[in-house]
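User: Quick sanity check before I run a bigger batch. Here is a single chain. Can you write out its predicted 3D structure?
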Amino acid sequence: MPDFIDPGPLGIVRPVYLKEAVPVIPALDVAITVAFYEEKLGFTELFRAGDPPVYAGLERDGVKFHVFECMDKKIADWTAFRVYVRGIAELYAISRTAKIIHPNGALGETPWRTKEFTIVDPSGCAITFVEQIPTDDR
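Assistant: Done. Predicted structure follows.
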């Protein structure tokens, strides 16, 4: 870990490190989007704000993201993020059965030694699931 130093409160020096990133993605309908991720991919709702909801948090296996109400479909259509996984073949099978694979998102291998596929949610946001292909250490 790099030795970045943060002069904290009262000038106390302490190491700084980044803990996690939580993407925030647009949703045309927050309730529908939350239900999609719960029912299709096994995420759990952490919280929701508003009635009807305008913001919510989701989590599965330590991976978190938030959704916010956004009525501009173009923003959702241009939103994407990547999630690294173990068991990509099984997740792909679940996603195919659920009919949520992006039209150009079939499971495949990349030149950078990953297996990947992409799903699309009801608002148009894309999530690419990625599994690193182990290197041959022979």
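Helices lie at 30-41, 73-77, 88-97.

User: Great, the batch can go ahead then.
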